[in-house]
Amino acid sequence: MKEKLFAWLGGLGLEVTNMMALAIALGFIVVTSLLLHLLLHRILLVRLVGMIERKQQVWLPANLQQRLFNRLAFVLQGVVLLGQAEIWLPRGSESLEFIVVTTQLWILLFLLLALFALLDCVLFLSRRTQFGQSLPLRGIFQGVKLMGSILVGILMLSLLIGKSPLFLFSGLGAMTAVLMLVFKDPILGLVAGIQLSANRMLSVGDWLQMDKYGADGEVTDIGLTTVKVSNWDKTITTIPTYALISDSFKNWQGMTESGGRRIKRSVNIDMTSVRFLTHEEIVALKQAKLLAPYLSRKEQELSDYNQRLQEAIGNPINGRHLTNLGTLRAYLEAYLKASDKIRNDMTLMVRQLSPTPDGVPLEIYCFTATTAWLEYEAIQADIFDHLLAVIDQFHLRLHQSPTGYDMRSWSGAPQP
């Protein structure tokens, strides 16, 4: 084609010099490149994106689609420009060498950017699947981007200096220690991301608690070097990704998936108020519907046991009797089992802990039927509100450190 064009110009009486031939070739290459750019970016890509957006099922956001298609179009432009230069410019010329090197750098750059856009698209699509949500793919993809950037950077540098890429790769061995120091955090983060993914230790959306870094909230992002946690107080904590492998942390996702959230709280009972119940007190407590079956069963059991004793049972030490603290424990267990807000298929108990100088701790251990924080706190508060209000019916006292009000009452000073 080039020879025919120059022959046609010669037939018109125009002398085609080397300078004119170069100018014509460069002009044709520039015009072709501009027309191709307008065709791709102003017509084809606009219509393609518009056609995809008009469909009811859009598989990618418009910005991701446009970014990927634009970068692929630039790669195609580079390939066409490289082909045009090979056709129109004479071999061995400086202009051809310059355009070839520049175009190859252009193609490598936009191939790398197209790879970045493709990985972003894959990451977006993976987050719409349950499998993708359970894996920290963003950190792994960032590692792939880093490796791709290094590889493309070496190829581009080899083009600029006119050396084989193998020459540069051979020099990397001597710089291994320096590279390990420079890329220490990304390398550790990549290893940690793979371990987190393989062992399914953490995913975006999990509730993470890591007191060492002041993190207590929802994981919003797992990157190559950092993990971002949105705390419940609306602050943001960033944790080094590798710290999740080297240090311990608590993942509350198991609690969320189980559908029950644990209540584990105790109140301190004044030990001097613990005693046996009298017959009149037992009769009064039988008025409680939740407690009546327990008292009837327990009275029969204790009566049968005491009748078998040979010695006199006039002294309470010689027999078994109901205590007010044991009866309170039985009542609280029945109260929790009767509540539809407490899971009966999970551990449920009311137990005594070791006595302390502050009294006998009476602990409630159970699981709510919801994991929502507000509902959980409301259920827990209702349970202990009821416990504090009903404890006097069992002739027990709660332990409480003396307050200024108590001090004034002991001294006989007038109360405000």
From TrEMBL:
Keywords: Cell inner membrane, Cell membrane, Membrane, Stress response, Transmembrane, Transmembrane helix
Entry's Gene Ontology cellular component terms: plasma membrane
Primary site of residence: membrane
Limits of the Mechanosensitive ion channel MscS domain: 185-253
Lineage: superkingdom: Bacteria
Membrane topology qualifier: Multi-pass membrane protein
GO biological process, one term: cellular response to osmotic stress
Pfam families (UniProt xref): MS_channel_2nd
Classification via PANTHER family: MINICONDUCTANCE MECHANOSENSITIVE CHANNEL YBDG
Localization terms from the record: Cell inner membrane
Protein name in the entry: Mechanosensing system component YbdG
A single MF term (Gene Ontology): mechanosensitive monoatomic ion channel activity
Transmembrane segments: 20-48, 68-85, 105-125, 137-160, 166-183
Species: Aeromonas simiae
